[in-house]
Design goal:
alpha+beta, Homing Intron 3 (I-Ppo) Encoded Endonuclease, Chain A, 5 helices, 7 strands, binds zinc ion
């Protein structure tokens, strides 16, 4: 059986040491895991002592392994077949961020102030799209920075 998940795990094991920054043996890179919006991430940390711990987009990470260079700040990892969960190496290519986002009509991140705790927070991608849909409802009182603030918001 060659499920997508198995192929991605195999590619990760084959390629992770080629990463220009985190491939070195002093870093640990834990296998890609799915977030609740079905995007994959990797956790990166220093093996000894230091508390350094980063979360990185998996498609970006694995594309950097394939190219053996870091993506520039103005580059995104584009999914060639447009399936955002299909992180197979051959399905990824670098693409200029502005062109890429316009192509996908991806909303640029926006900042909000939470109505409950007054903390500033940023929404992007699917979360921002969902927020914009919710905000159209007359009964919506947000934005809220978290589920816990949204819960409190319901009682005001
Ligand atoms: Zn894309
Ligand atoms: Zn809040």
């Amino acid at each position: 059986m060659n499920t997508l998940e198995e192929i991605i795990k195999r590619e990760f094991l084959l390629l992770k040491s080629k990463h220009p920054t985190y491939g070195s043996s002093s870093w640990t890179v834990s296998p890609p895991y799915l977030k609740d919006d079905f995007r994959r991430q990797v956790h990166i940390g220093k093996r000894f002592g230091s508390r350094t711990r980063l979360t990185r987009s998996y498609p970006r990470f694995i594309l950097e392994c394939k190219l053996e260079r870091l993506l520039e700040d103005n580059e995104d990892a584009h999914h060639i077949n447009t399936q955002e969960y299909d992180d197979r190496v051959d399905n990824l290519e670098p693409k200029n961020k502005h062109i890429h986002r316009a192509d996908h009509k991806i909303l640029l991140p926006e900042k909000f102030i939470c109505r409950i705790c007054k903390v500033e927070f940023e929404l992007s991608g699917i979360k921002l799209t969902k927020f914009k849909m919710r905000a159209k409802r007359k009964t919506y009182m947000g934005p809220y920075c978290s589920k816990s603030c949204a819960g409190k918001g319901n009682f005001f």
